[in-house]
Amino acid sequence: xxxxxxxxxxxxxxxxxxxxxxxxxxxxxxxxxxxxxxxxxxxxxxxxxxxxxxxxxxxxxxxxxxxxxxxxxxxxxxxxxxxxxxxxxxxxxxxxxxxxxxxxxxxxxxxxxxxxxxxxxxxxxxxxx
Length: 129
Fold this sequence. Notes:
The chain has 129 residues and is of the alpha+beta class. It is built from two helices and six strands; from the N terminus they run αββββαββ.
């Protein structure tokens, strides 16, 4: 499912990030750039606006993000890990009726240890729902 509209202005930055991806982390079957690879399933943003997730434990094809929260979390993690704040432009503006996320205290991140934070599973990292 297409979650995001990739602007013509963002494409060159995404291509630049794609060129920086190590060969073993490139997704050859899709025109995609890695958002996250590390502890957890690698996530990729395709140039047509989908988010793909590779299951590290199973030998199965990449799957598409199952929810908007999952897709958003890939963008937020990618913006932080890839040092690419331009990715935040893909995210929706907070609506007037949006409620603050209580799970992360509106930060988008949950602290699981003194030095370890993860993107909030409740709001996907937006800080609101």
